[in-house]
Design a protein that fits this description.
By secondary structure, the protein is mostly beta strands. It has one helix at residues 2-18; strands at residues 22-26, 29-33, 42-45, 51-54, 65-66, 72-73, 95-106, 109-123, 126-129, 133-142, 148-155, 161-172, 177-187, 193-196, 208-217. The protein is built from 1 helix and 15 strands, in the order αβββββββββββββββ.
Amino acid sequence: MHKILFSLMAVFMFSIVSYAGQWTQDENGLRYQNDDGTYKTGWHQDADGRWYYLSDDTAYMLTGTITPDGYSVGVDGVWGEGGDSGVSNNASYDNKVDLVVTAYENITGINQMGYSVPVTVYYNNSYLMEHDVSINVIGVEVTKDGVPYINFTINSDTMLRGHMSTKCIHNLSDGTVTEIKGSITGERGKENNSYPLLTRIKRGDLKTTAIEIYIETE
């Protein structure tokens, strides 16, 4: 009886180990590989008891962002207590738009990145600021050059210009994130102010794999 019980326990323990899987890392980030060679997607609770989200499309772990079902994961990929994402909660925004961009714009003009990057933009329909300045957003689009732009109007009786800010969260190929802040300016009276949302890109050896842009008041 004891031998049979021991054998059953051994088989049970072996089955746990053989299907435990392991984390793997490449230039694009971290994935969780099952023993059969497939990669897990969706929510995953690791041996440390913490929850991580693996992209439904690429299987790479999401970091410093909002998961598709609306939860915030930290720069280390952890959801819940201790997981500081460093980004705003998209629940406070009226709109979420998914784009694919290939370029950005700064003072030197349009710069092609040489590859496509998925970009998610979070913004409100309108923004009310100091001095009774209101900004109404017409929409967000990608131009034929591959640069994302925001289109808006400014209403004010006293101020000639209106300002908003952007917070761009770059997800990098090593699984880390970096934040770049920018500004949006426009003139009152124009039917359509158009301003580039992506004015700077991460420099260095690491590749940007995805970007979240949050449009806020200054």
